[in-house]
Amino acid sequence: MNNLLYLISIILLFSINTVLNASEKLQVSFHYAAFNSPNDGPYIETYMTVLGQSSTFTKNDNNKFQSSIEITMIFKQESKVINFTKFNLLSPELSDTTEAKPNFIDQQRISLPNGIYNFELIIKDKNSDAKEFSFNDIITINFNDTEICFSGVQFIDKFSETKTENILSKNGYDFVPYVSNFFPDNMNELIFYTEIYNISTILKDEKDILVQYFIENFSNGKTIDQYSKYKKQTAKDINVVFAQLNISDLPSGNYNLNIEIKNKENVLLKSQKVFFQRSNPEKDINIEDISSINIADVFTNKYKSIDTLSEYIRCVRPIADDLEKRFIDNNSKSTTLSFMQQYFYSFWAKRNSVNPEQEWEYYRKQVDLVNNLYSSSIIKGYESDRGRIYLKHGSPNSITESKHEPSAYPYEIWHYYKIGEEINRQVNVKFVFYNPELAGNDYTLLHSNARGEIQDRNWERRLSKRNNTLYNHDVINSDDQYGGRAIDNFNK
Q1: Which CATH architecture has domain 1-143?
Q2: Rounded Cα–Cα distance for residues 358 and 397 (Å)
Q3: How far apart are CA 101 and CA 92, in angstroms?
Q4: What does the pLDDT read at residue 4?
């Protein structure tokens, strides 16, 4: 069985958000964020939610039913334990097991000096025979006095003014953590808290700053204007950003919450972003608008085969946005010919309102090219990782290919000098594809430094998996391998 039910592990500045399947049924959400206290130094806050329905309730000494989850957290540097905590997380008590089992949360504050830590989280349902579950990650804490620093970002479920100081209290409020970066359609507010350090020290005589926070599309980095706000603040040693955005109209998709600090000249000083997902089916693609298109007047009217149009719609997925991908995945094979004609026209009219057919014909030539280059016996070229990247970003500026390194799987490293539109441009972007099957033409994307793509800090070890101990969490770089050149090729 796969112990990790699913992992959303976007490693950002001092934060991780993950959902764990800690046993055959126990489900735990875990998140942490680092902060810096002017008196006590750096610390991390850990947030945990246990799905009550997934845990085991048994009678306690009060003759009530209760769940007990044993939590162990270990922070190590070079095999030396720097900090350690172990405790039992208890659920609310129930009179009987017919009652609904509530979810229950935990929050801890753990002092940790600046440094890199090997973190291990061990979870055990004490009322179950299931084996304990262990989760490992690398935590980096790097606060200093010479630059502006962000704390981690805490998502908040609800808040109230502090009446009595407690573990949930910060800056006059009690924050109940929202331990997830998935926002379903019944959640209409995105509430968050973060701290910024050293602004007054760095700016010296400047007092006025602008804090801007906004939502951007994860796949292309475009700012969504209606979800952009700002606050004027006075520079302090610790500036607090506690804010909320109404996301009731935000469609389903993958996004970043972006927080920026600017001076009075509107110059960006520092920023950080946090990944989240939104599910909001009612705000997805407007079917009525598409259905109103008169197909007699558009170029897609010439395509009379559902199979052909279905293929054409699927092949545009590499350049589709999140909403379009959702529609393609769910509807490309299950609708009428006329609606497919309408949808396909709307897709290209959105990209070239003057001559959508010309835009499509140019793209179709690129699809033909990647099908010839990257198709395999299992998938077509546009469905492959190399085909997707080619269609999305065009031809790379250089390709380093290696098929015969002694310990590595066959691989290719693609290098782009720049990708994306000017406002969201990324430079010196690289993609590592490899072929773990050692045969055929199906190369899988292993690692990239591009925004929105898979980033695997252990990619070099995975590339040489045959001769490496892959799950050695104390090591990132590959073991020394005769003839290994992958990291040198990536760093060219």
Answers
A1: Sandwich (2.60)
A2: 25
A3: 9
A4: 27
